[in-house]
Specification:
Domain GFO/IDH/MocA-like oxidoreductase: 135-275
CATH superfamily of the largest domain: Dihydrodipicolinate Reductase, domain 2
Strand content: 25-35%
Number of helices: 11
Domain Gfo/Idh/MocA-like oxidoreductase N-terminal: 5-123
Oligomer: single chain
Protein name: Oxidoreductase domain protein
Number of strands: 15
Radius of gyration: 21 Å
Low-confidence stretches: 220-224
Mean pLDDT: 95
Bound molecules: nicotinamide-adenine-dinucleotide
Strand order of the largest sheet: 14-13-12-11-7-10-9-8-15
CATH topology of the largest domain: Dihydrodipicolinate Reductase, domain 2
Pfam families: GFO_IDH_MocA, GFO_IDH_MocA_C3
GO molecular function, one term: nucleotide binding
């Protein structure tokens, strides 16, 4: 298929900008429409990226009959609305993470993709890091043996985004750092472990800082935010079991009093080797260690890492999926599984008990 793919992007924030930039670099792809509420920014981006059709309403963009694909880069509460409307009108959809606020929405999106025979993908750009790709090669070549325990975290010391905005409203976002940051780490772990079947989760959430106007990203302006709406967690911890006995721990925070800045990482424990990834402030150099034995001698390997291309790779994979014609293989199931796990974690925290993933799937 070598026809030009015509794309529309909904959203003008960080996500809308990186999607647009990535499409512009791909031969045979044209960004022909852009939508968003901030009029100045709409005009600015339209000019910067030479996009001819600009809309304030996403509905007007999705209604165009000449688009092949739509990127959904809106607040989480709009993901399902925009994506389903686009899928129903025959467009392929690349949706920012999380796929949706909850399983019900995510399942409806997958159903719409299957019904309309279109691609639905979730943007998991942190899986496209160079260190994650290298680690995956070590795992696939058997260096770690069977991984039986894995830990992952994304911890910010003071990093509540947009206090009082959609980010900190449960209704609009679906949750706090777990659904915002934790979903990236969950995706990395699921990718590295080969999409294990999570059977149960036990989680806790805490809200200690946001409602007091503390822990916000711009610490100098903290007082301005006191009393702003904040009904999500600022820390979440979870313990998960998989079908084959492997266990997984996940932590995600927007605000904690600990020696973190905006850091994420992983620890993998395998029967033949282990791995550790430590990323501080989105760095990419010297982030990975592999632990194994050479004969009887314990050896630590420090692979040369590279940055990876993040959203560029995500967008290229999406275009490749469209061009492949094998659309039912890209119907959003990965994104759905991560939303199910996140929902199970929130349910577990609320009810103070272990939750089976089966019960989350059956509820849809
Ligand atoms: N993968 C990543 O690294 C990453 C980073 C940041 C955000 N995100 C995700 O991207 C999404 C957007 O996040 P953001 O930080 O860019 O948010 P943002 O609030 O900065 O931008 C949201 C955009 O959506 C637009 N919008 C809202 N309602 C609209 C409507 N009714 N019609 C048209 N446009 C509308 C707004 O005008 C705005 O331009 C979220 O799902 C977030 O989780 C992902």
């Amino acid at each position: 298929m070598d026809q030009t793919i015509r794309v529309g992007v909904v959203g003008l924030g960080f996500a809308g900008n990186v999607h647009t930039m990535a499409y512009k670099k791909i031969p045979g792809v044209e960004v022909v429409a852009l939508a968003g509420l901030e009029e100045d920014r709409l005009q600015l981006m339209g000019k910067e990226y030479s996009i001819p059709n600009l809309y304030s309403r996403w509905e007007d963009l999705v209604a165009r009959s000449d688009l092949d694909a739509v990127s959904v880069c809106t607040p989480n509460y709009l993901h399902a609305h925009v994506a389903i409307a686009a899928l129903e009108s025959g467009k392929h959809v690349l949706c920012e993470k999380p796929l949706a606020r909850n399983t019900e929405e995510a399942q409806s999106m997958v159903d719409a993709a299957l019904r309309n025979r279109r691609v639905l993908q979730t943007a998991f750009n942190h899986r496209q890091r160079g260190d994650i790709m290298i680690l995956k090669q070590y795992i696939d070549s058997g260096t770690l043996g069977k991984i039986y325990y894995a830990k992952g975290y994304w911890m910010r010391r003071q990093g509540i985004p947009g206090l009082g905005s959609w980010f900190t409203s449960k209704e609009l976002s679906g949750g706090g750092p777990l659904i915002d940051l934790g979903v990236h780490v969950l995706d990395q772990l699921m990718f590295l472990l080969g999409e294990p079947e999570i059977t149960t989760v036990s989680a806790s959430t805490y809200a200690e800082f946001g409602h007091r106007g503390r822990g916000v990203r711009r610490s100098g302006l903290q007082k301005m935010f006191v009393g702003a709406d904040f009904d999500v967690e600022d820390l979440a911890t979870a313990f998960m079991r998989t079908e084959d006995g492997t266990t997984v721990c996940l932590e995600a925070s927007w605000a904690v009093q600990a020696d973190y800045d905006d850091d994420f990482g992983l620890d993998l424990y395998g029967t033949e080797g282990g791995a550790q990834m430590r990323v501080k402030r989105y760095g990419w150099q010297d982030t990975l260690r592999i632990f194994t034995d050479h004969g009887d001698v314990p050896v630590t390997i420090a692979p040369q890492t590279w940055q990876g291309t993040g959203h560029q790779a995500v967008v290229e994979n999406f275009i490749d999926a469209i061009r492949s014609g094998n659309w039912s293989a890209h119907a959003g199931h990965e994104g759905l599984r991560r939303v199910q796990i996140v929902e199970a974690c929130y349910k577990s925290a609320l009810e103070g008990r272990e939750i089976s993933l089966q019960s989350i799937r059956q509820n849809v």
